[in-house]
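Please decode residue identities from the backbone states below.
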């Protein structure tokens, strides 16, 4: 199954605060339900969440478990709400609308992605994406913050 997330820009009016989760390597499990019927298998992977990813929820809460780079699809994130350990937003892609809601904080997250095609019809897909921090990202991964470089393996929650 192809990944259902891509590179999304925050639209005007979307919250501009970062998610309060600690950057690092996360074990991610994605469980699918089509028309409210749970599928028999989940996908498991690990992914690095870098400091720069914290400002774009689709980079964190996507269902992409591929270990190879794929071209990213563009979308717009709207109605972003972050607070009290909860997160919710909408992602508008060219062929589908996605609503995401769940919890995120510290070293774990759990969200439900509700996906509806724009082409109409009653088909919908629900994905539960859960992640738990399992360690640091590779030391080769360096992110750029304004006026300095920071290695994402630095301990603590980066804000």
């Amino acid at each position: 199954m192809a990944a259902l997330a891509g590179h999304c820009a925050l639209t005007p009016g979307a919250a501009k605060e970062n998610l309060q989760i600690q950057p690092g390597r996360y074990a991610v499990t994605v469980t699918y339900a089509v028309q409210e019927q749970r599928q028999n298998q989940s996908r498991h992977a690990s992914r690095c969440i870098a400091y720069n990813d914290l400002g774009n929820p689709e980079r964190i809460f996507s269902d992409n478990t591929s270990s190879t780079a794929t071209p990213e699809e563009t979308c717009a994130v709207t109605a972003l709400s972050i607070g009290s350990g909860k997160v919710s937003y909408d992602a508008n892609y060219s062929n589908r609308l996605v609503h995401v809601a769940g919890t995120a904080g510290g070293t774990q997250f759990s969200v439900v992605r509700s996906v509806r095609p724009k082409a109409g019809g009653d088909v919908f897909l629900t994905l539960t994406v859960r992640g738990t921090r399992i360690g640091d990202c590779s030391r080769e991964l360096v992110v750029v913050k304004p006026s300095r470089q920071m290695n994402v393996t630095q301990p603590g929650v980066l804000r």
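Observation: Helices lie at 57-60.
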